[in-house]
Amino acid sequence: MLKPNFSSFMTRCSMLSWNTVEKKKFASDNLRSLSLRIKSVKSIQKITKAMKMVAASKFKGDQRRLEKCSNFSTPLVDVFNRLNKLDIHKKNEELAIIAISSDKGLCGSVNSSVSRLCKKLLENEQVNNELVDNITPNKIYLYGIGEKIRSALSRLHKDKFQVIYNEYNKIPINFLTCSYIAERIMNNNHSNIIIIYNHFKSAISFDTQILSKWITYLKIYTNSILPPYYIILSFKIWPPSR
Fold it and tell me: One Pfam annotation, family name (predicted)?
């Protein structure tokens, strides 16, 4: 007759009780971490809600300014676009590219779309745009507006950058800010200038466009009487960056 082994029985009981204790401890730890996680998520929700309210108010303000200035800028931009259809630009001279981005990251491809198009032009690739595809400039200058365009292109095309204008949108964009940037670019007397920017359509959509300004042609017809501030019109339709 087999005798019961009390030592092995007690060992099994102790192991079962230990496992039960460990499971209860693990479950309590999970509940505690889960409650802390819920609290942190609620705190983040409060912060993001406040940020959304601030962003919405800034967006509405910029949209109101956009609507007010579009009555002045749209007819003039249409005139310059019709002039650009003429074969008036110098194909084998220097080309200045003004790339407009933001200082901080934005959702979607707001900054990357501008940098991709700008990179194609710097590497002489076709971009399916009649204004620039038939140009073969002997030298390209790059002006960056916004910190993101610098971080995207400085590694491969650092030598092309002339100047970077950042933190330009700390205050609402106005005529003085645009004039300051435009005048300093115009003082370099570039033969051809193109502007790469995101044309605002709605709060969730935009079109990356190329706006060209053929400076030589317009200076002939203005007879150097009017200051070349027409370039600021493209800055005024730039969508809000925050």
Answer: ATP-synt
- Exposed / middle / buried, residue 140 (Cβ in 10 Å: 0-12, 13-18, 19+): middle
Give the three-state DSSP class for 141: strand
Question: Is position 75 within any domain?
Answer: yes
- The DSSP-derived string for 188-228 is T--SEEEEEEEEEEETTEEEEEEEEEEHHHHHHHHTT-S--
Where in the sequence is the domain holding 49, given as residue range(s)?
34-86
| 3-class secondary structure, 161 | strand
For tokens 């990357």, the residue is: 112
pLDDT at 236: 35
Number of domains in the chain: 2
Q: Is residue 188 assigned to a domain?
A: yes
Token digits of residue 87: 């074969």
C-alpha–C-alpha distance, residues 143 and 147, integer Å: 11
8 A C-beta contact, residue 236 and residue 63: no
Contact between 158 and 134 (Cβ < 8 Å):
no
pTM of the entire structure?
0.64
Alpha helices in 2-157 (DSSP H): 6-84, 110-122, 147-157
Query: Is 152 within 8 Å of 138 (Cβ atoms)?
Result: no
What type of residue is 135? I
- How far are the Cα atoms of 189, 224, 236 from residue 67, in angstroms, in the given order? 32, 31, 10
- Residues 107, 201: one domain? yes
Query: Does residue 139 sit in the same domain as residue 191?
Result: yes
Digit-coded pLDDT (tens) for 72-124: 777 777 776 676 655 555 555 778 888 888 888 776 688 888 888 888 888 77
